[in-house]
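Model it.
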Amino acid sequence: MSQTTWTLKPARIDEIESLNELIRLSARGLSEEYTQEETEALIQYVFGVDQELIHDKTYFVIQKDNVSAACGGWSKRPTLFGGDQCETREKGYLDPLKDAAKIRAFFVHPHFVRQGLAKTLLNQCEQEAVKAGFKKLELMSTLPGIKFYRSQGYEGNQIIDYTLPNKSIIHFMPMRKQINDL
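Modeled.
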């Protein structure tokens, strides 16, 4: 990633709407494994910015010419996935000595795929989690993300069903990675 072309920075509260727009574009453009109805339900009930990550300075955006191309983060909180609108919110903080940090809300604009942006974000998140004392990471992958996360050393082999408030059943895969060697 060229430093003169791309900028990786912590996301700001005043960027939430533009980041949510990026998330919607990514979901609609790159979620071929889900039906259009499932994708729209995910946007309504799950996909979106989690302001706690922005407040914690653990959510990042990559921009090119002031256009947001990718976003993603990590968390020291127990919530595994979902934006502010998601009902699966958990309070408190994780213990890095026994808990896994959470990799959260990775989205790439469809015009910027296959340029290493998700990998750059993931590397940033993993390095920061290590600095915070975590030895393992976990995430809830969408179906389109499984191949990417496997290529980055994450393991998971069981698809789970998650029921949304509108009764749509969405398939996800929980995945984990030991990060002792970073």
